[in-house]
Amino acid sequence: MVNAVIMASGNGSNAIELIKLEKELDNINFKFIITDNKDAGIINKGKSLKKDVFLFENKNNKLEHEEKILNKLKSENIEWIFLAGYMRILSSDFINHFYDDDLDQAKIINIHPSLLPDFKGKDAYEQAFKAKVNNSGVSIHFVDAGIDTGKIITQKEFPLIKGESLENFKKRGLKLEHDLYPKVVKNIDKFIETKCKEDIYEI
Fold it and tell me: Least enclosed by CB within 10 Å: which of 102, 120, 126, 190?
């Protein structure tokens, strides 16, 4: 059983989907949730699902902030991190603590609401909507030192419907996120066994 943690900064809807999935898993144990935001909705939502939520606020010192988180992760023997709307960029030093030689990747996975490499960074749905793309989507990828530049595990697309509102566009994207992220977690052993050598996995 692999010890994992979820990190989230906001409402944590993807985090909730992963926690709900846990009862179906025999390979991953989500030990707790970490947030950097004292007002994050995930705090009460996580506790309602019987998960401890630990708050590590950033006091304008990135090194100290990450060191406190790392100390907690090490004390609990955490092997994997799943980012679910965690809004801080992790340093290369932090990422390297979870680097796996066999995988040639850090054991940190993120979900991003676009078809990477398009629309990296914040407000990806807004970026895609403003660009009037024919299709947008959701990407699940490993985390590296760049911003949404890590190896893509899988992607799914959905169309922009002519005349729809941004709110509806985002709602449809979020539904896809909630479907795709749990599927990746359920198949994590597949990525390990193949050492993540496939370009993009079909799930």
Answer: 102
Residue positions annotated with a catalytic role: 112
Q: Given this model, what pLDDT does residue 69 score?
A: 97
Q: What is the model's pTM?
A: 0.93
Which tokens sit at 142? 């490993």
- Is residue 55 within 8 Å of 82, Cβ to Cβ? no
Give Cα separations from 74 to 5, 40, 68, 96, 102 (angstroms).
Answer: 11, 24, 10, 13, 20
- Strands 28-35 and 152-159: what pairing? unpaired
Contact 15, 111 (CB under 8 A): no
pLDDT given for residue 199 in this prediction: 54
Q: Which helix (H) or strand (E) holds 173?
A: helix 166-186
C-beta atoms surrounding 128 within 10 Å: 23
Cα dist. 173→21, 53, 138, 140 in Å?
20, 26, 7, 13
Question: In DSSP terms, which residues pair with 109 in a beta bridge?
Answer: 82, 142
Question: What pLDDT, on the 0 to 100 scale, is given for residue 83?
Answer: 98
* Cα separation of the two ends of the chain: 22
- Each residue's pLDDT tens digit, 142-194: 999 999 999 999 999 999 999 999 999 999 999 999 999 999 998 887 767 66
Task: Dig out the tokens for 117 from the structure.
Answer: 């490499």
Tell me the average pLDDT of the chain: 92
DSSP conformational letter for 103: T
